Amino acid sequence: MKRVDVKPVRFKGIDTNPSLLGFGCMRFPRLDPDKPDIDEAASEKLIDAAYARGVTYFDTAYPYHGGQSETFIGNALKKYPRDAFFLASKMPGWKLESVDDAERIFHEQLSKCQVDYFDYYLCHALNQSGYEQYKLPGVMDFLWRMKAEGKIKHLGFSFHDTPDVLETILHDHPWDFVLLQINYLDWTFQDARRQYELVKEKKIPCMVMEPVRGGTLATLCESSRAILQAHAPNRSIASWAMRYAAGLDNTLLVLSGMTTMEHVEDNCDTLSDFTPLSDTEQDVLNEALKVFLANSTIPCTQCDYCMPCPEGVDIPGTFSVYNEYLLSKFDAMFVGRYEGLGKKSANACVDCGVCVPLCPQSIDIPERMQAIREAYDRVKADKS
């Protein structure tokens, strides 16, 4: 099989490039959809298939799958030579009270992943408030020391906030790379364009997360899908989003959380012998996006940062049910799926607000839950 295209070495501070497609380790198949436990047999098949197609970059983090992702990926990759893959993990800043916590967590991560070093290491999900933990005495000094000792090859951060906050963080340290949420919806919706430009101006390579926005841009709506399929009937809807992100000239790689073999095969097909979108294709995509935005969905990426809810609400699941309804307008399906959530639906929301500061997308979750409850009540009454 053809290997995933690897861009030529041209990024300052990056001596050996990973594959253009990176495997995000946050969305492995689960044994039970309501629990974080990984279906290890199924997930290892995905890892092996991706590796066979040339994927060399694997991105995990301390909290993924309830803390199980690092251990799993360490086991899954140990069959391969250490210099044949690039492994990334992340420091959970919200768990830091002192530099001692940073040291303990970092060495725990090395042990769980069964490696002596991380090729790429990130300060996880930085925003204005979360960045404060990295100002604790000694924390950043420790991370830069780990780089000097070779236990971190490249040090960067992932980011969820405004361009102004990003600019401050970029100027504070000589970062090697930045992981940004970039896709053709958020390019203007969350001003990803300005974030991308700030990173590029600093001559720092950019990694891309959420290229299909938690699956939203892999499905779109029926009218948008029709526009894309009319232009390229043999190409998946997700492939347009992947090519958009990979085509930006300061993109080092594009992460995808692949849950099925179809995801692996489609992404590998898309980014093998990669070519960016043409001007004509970009025009087609813009038209599809225009139609999609008219459907006004909730911008949830299913990242689970808002979970667990103190009242037991399945926040991402509830948003998924509602978004599907906004796109399909299928009343019966909405009622059935909403009622299928049982005690985990928006009905259980008490507007406590605990989830709001945890959402990287800045969604007013209680407000949305109220709107969903009202929509359900309205549709249910209409059907009675």
The overall average pLDDT, rounded, is 94
- The CATH class of the largest domain, by name, is Alpha Beta
Number of domains: 2
Instruction: Find the structural class using helix and strand composition.
Output: alpha/beta
The CATH homologous superfamily of the largest domain: NADP-dependent oxidoreductase domain
Oligomer: single chain
The fold-level CATH name of the largest domain is: TIM Barrel
Shape: globular
Helix share bin: 40-55%
Radius of gyration: 21 Å
Report on the biggest sheet.
Answer: 8 strands, parallel, barrel
DSSP strand count: 8
Number of helices: 15
Estimated share of beta-strand residues: 5-15%
Calculate the terminal CA-CA distance, rounded to whole Å: 55 Å
Can you give keywords for this protein?
alpha/beta, TIM Barrel, 8-stranded parallel barrel, 43% helix, globular
Provide an overview of this structure.
By secondary structure, the protein is an alpha/beta fold. The chain folds into two domains: 21-293, TIM Barrel, CATH 3.20.20; 315-383, no CATH class. It is built from 15 helices and eight strands. It has helices spanning 40-52, 69-77, 99-113, 139-148, 163-172, 186-189, 192-201, 216-219, 222-231, 237-246, 261-271, 279-293, 315-328, 331-340, 365-383; strands at residues 21-24, 57-59, 86-91, 118-126, 152-159, 177-181, 206-209, 251-256. It has an eight-stranded parallel β-barrel, surrounded by five helices. Strand 2, helix 2 (69-77) and strand 3 (86-91) form a beta-alpha-beta unit. Helix 1 (40-52) crosses helix 2, helix 9 (222-231) runs antiparallel to helix 12 and helix 14 (331-340) packs across helix 15. The radius of gyration is 21 Å and the shape is globular.
